[in-house]
């Protein structure tokens, strides 16, 4: 069910958002009965505190939501989502306390707090609904929320129901919704179409590998999004231990994220031409599985020595990135759950990104702060280029030593792109529940990119 604001004609319960140092002023404006109730409940405006003030009939007359201090709020985001979880079902209206970017973030947080993954369980109880605040772009916020929900839904779906074919179905449904064109190359046709590394990585699975290619828009600069679509990753012959395989349903998180971002771009009708490329595979094991020490020839003609079959994401992305370059896009952005090294470096919350363009980096960092979608620039550090050059082939897919794993993976990908390029090494998973982010799949970097696109592409 789409995430949506409540009908503005519905009777709504007013919500006052109150910083800690403003509690006394707010309480003084209430009735003596309400003041007594607030004091009895020890309402002090701490972050996330919720107080429902009763009316004469035993219903809710008003809701007070604590907003803490600016210093405390800076430690996280989507604070309104925490309050939503404490409210009973009903319709609400943010009556006071928030303005500008904070009000927009609160409205988005409210919608995202309504997301739950219940495909295999009983639907959750109805979520509290919000009347869209007058001073926000409600249509844009709803589009962004539903793009994020699409990303979450795809990542959360287990591999039994989210293989390459099902990922293709999701892309086709999105293309149909927005009247985009779509072409898919499947199985052995990848060989004749010169996508050798996508085919090699996916050929051991009973579920055929494929390259999904979606296009939308007729005018404006071309943006090409490339998403890693490894629907499940056993590690191949370098098989993962069970403890490392448990979250591998999320290894198509890059594909899920670019599809969510594509929904936002198309639904908002941005003045650009969009192309989405997703190499969709399952990295599995049978007699045809590729091996350590194999040397593969990529679409670009560069040869790659395989030193670890569990470093397969960069292989399928390489062929897709080569294709992305062939029609001279203004900007190529890849998103992938690519390396554990990125998580060691920045943790689960932050989206590390790589670009050689300082203006693009500045625009993205500024946008990320505005929309509460944290990113961090990482370096294409050229002295490390030698680490991905094994000597026997042009490139090494898994340099020895274990150092700078995210950087060397990004340098590997950059070898296949000549166009302006930005790469995200995301996690795609919320390990513990947080405001508006239940445990499970989560979008990373998409909202920041969306906000930065007008400046990056001069729209």
From TrEMBL:
Kindly give the Pfam families that the UniProt entry links to this protein.
Peptidase_M17, Peptidase_M17_N_1
- What cellular component terms from Gene Ontology apply here? cytoplasm
One GO molecular function term? manganese ion binding
The record's section on InterPro entries has: Leucine_aapep/pepB, Macro_dom-like, Peptidase_M17_C, Peptidase_M17_N_1
Q: Where is the Cytosol aminopeptidase domain?
A: 308-315
Q: Which PROSITE patterns match?
A: CYTOSOL_AP
Matching SUPFAM superfamilies, A to Z?
Macro domain-like (SSF52949), Zn-dependent exopeptidases (SSF53187)
Q: Which UniProt keywords apply?
A: Aminopeptidase, Hydrolase, Manganese, Protease
Report whether Hydrolase shows up as a keyword of the record.
yes
Q: What are its GO biological-process terms?
A: proteolysis
Domain of life, per the record? Answer: Bacteria
Protein family per UniProt: Belongs to the peptidase M17 family.
| Family annotation (PANTHER family) | LEUCINE AMINOPEPTIDASE-RELATED (PTHR11963), PEPTIDASE B (PTHR11963:SF20)
Q: Kindly provide the name given to this protein in its UniProt entry.
A: Leucyl aminopeptidase
To which species is this protein native? Yoonia rosea
């Amino acid at each position: 069910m789409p995430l949506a604001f409540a009908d503005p004609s519905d009777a709504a319960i007013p919500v006052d958002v109150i910083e800690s140092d403003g509690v006394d002023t707010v309480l003084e404006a209430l009735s003596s009965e309400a003041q007594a109730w607030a004091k009895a409940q020890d309402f002090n405006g701490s972050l996330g505190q919720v107080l429902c003030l009763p009316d004469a009939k035993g219903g809710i007359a008003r809701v007070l939501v604590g907003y803490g201090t600016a210093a405390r709020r800076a430690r996280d985001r989507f604070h309104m989502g925490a309050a939503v979880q404490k409210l009973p079902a009903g319709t609400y209206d943010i009556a006071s306390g928030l303005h500008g970017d904070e009000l927009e973030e609160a409205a988005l947080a409210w919608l995202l707090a309504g997301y739950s993954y219940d495909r295999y369980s009983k639907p959750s109880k109805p979520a509290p609904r919000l009347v869209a605040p007058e001073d926000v772009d409600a249509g844009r916020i709803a589009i962004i929320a539903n793009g994020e929900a699409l990303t979450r839904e795809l990542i959360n779906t287990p591999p039994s129901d989210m293989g390459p074919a099902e990922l293709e179905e999701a892309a086709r449904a999105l293309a149909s919704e927005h009247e985009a064109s779509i072409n898919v190359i499947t199985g052995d046709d990848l060989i004749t179409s010169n996508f050798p590394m996508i085919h090699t990585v996916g050929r051991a699975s009973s579920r055929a590998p494929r390259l999904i290619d979606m296009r939308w828009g007729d005018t404006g600069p071309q943006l090409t999004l490339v998403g890693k679509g490894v629907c499940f990753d056993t590690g191949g012959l370098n098989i993962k231990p069970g403890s490392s395989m448990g979250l591998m349903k999320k290894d198509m998180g890059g594909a899920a994220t670019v599809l969510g971002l594509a929904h936002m771009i198309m639904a908002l009708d941005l003045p650009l031409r969009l192309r989405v490329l997703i190499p969709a595979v399952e990295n599995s094991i049978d007699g045809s599985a590729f091996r350590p020490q194999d040397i593969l020839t990529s679409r670009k003609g560069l040869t790659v020595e395989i030193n670890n079959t569990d470093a397969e994401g960069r292989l399928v992305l390489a062929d897709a990135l080569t294709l992305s370059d062939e029609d001279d896009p203004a900007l190529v952005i890849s998103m992938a759950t690519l390396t554990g090294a990125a998580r060691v470096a920045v943790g689960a919350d932050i989206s590390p990104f790589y670009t050689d363009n300082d203006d693009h980096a500045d625009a993205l960092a500024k946008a990320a702060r505005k929309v509460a979608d944290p990113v961090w620039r990482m370096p294409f550090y050229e002295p490390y280029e030698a680490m991905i050059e094994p000597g026997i082939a042009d490139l090494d897919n898994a340099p020895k030593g274990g150092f700078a794993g995210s950087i060397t993976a990004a340098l590997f990908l950059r070898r296949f792109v000549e166009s302006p390029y930005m790469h995200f090494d995301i996690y795609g998973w919320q390990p513990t529940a947080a405001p508006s982010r239940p445990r499970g799949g989560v979008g990373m970097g998409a909202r920041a990119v969306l906000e930065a696109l007008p400046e990056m592409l001069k729209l």
